[in-house]
Amino acid sequence: MAESSHAVIALQISDLIRDIQESPHTDVDAVLSELAESGVNYIDTAQHAGITIASRDGKLHTAAATSEYPVLLDKFQQRCGEGPCLTAAWEQHITKIDDIEAEQRWPAYCRDTREETPIRSIMAFQLYADHQTMGALNFYAERPYAFDADAVEAGLIVATHAALAWNLLRRDQQFRSALASRDIIGQAKGMLMERFKIDAVQAFEVLKRLSQNSNTPLVDVAHDIVTADRASDVVDN
Fold this sequence. Notes:
The chain is of the alpha+beta class. The chain has helices at about 5-20, 30-40, 70-80, 85-90, 105-115, 150-195, 200-215, 220-235, and strands spanning about 50-55, 60-65, 95, 120-130, 135-140. A five-stranded antiparallel β-sheet has the order 2-1-5-4-3, with helices on both faces. The radius of gyration is 23 Å and the shape is elongated. The chain starts with a helix and ends with a helix.
């Protein structure tokens, strides 16, 4: 792949990131799917792509996939507790399998992949990793030695921009979650203030003590109060 082609990849994915930044309501699943599809389009030898999300407890989730194979291979990784995508996410930034038939790492995963799919080459890139979860962008081909140095370079460009987009999406989700939590806590405080004739500080103190006494997140306590109050209104009416 020529250097100009790499520039085109970077430009087009940068446009996608700009769209994310400018959009007031971003469909996370749609963006991740577009990133996976873009990777297959940009890397000529890649036939399938997927984005894997994993947690420290071993659970895997396929956030996006261009076919059934990325989903199936993620199931193999969860079942076997090993695989190139997990290694790329937790241990290395890039992991590559040139030929699934000859690969000595991850024997159970390679056996299942060899016996149940046509996939023979895999290339995985870390998108992010924190204390709880990780993400990896994965490319698959149905012939061995499909990913040469140029494919790795193109994959790095796609993965780097995908990581930027992913971080934007995660921050947006966290912001929306924080707004929703603040709203539900505000509603619960208002209900306590009205019912018990207390001020906002006292109402928040009640919520905090309920949270501590029940070892329940404060937002969940607030949600229970709002839900119970609404239910009682329905019964009264």
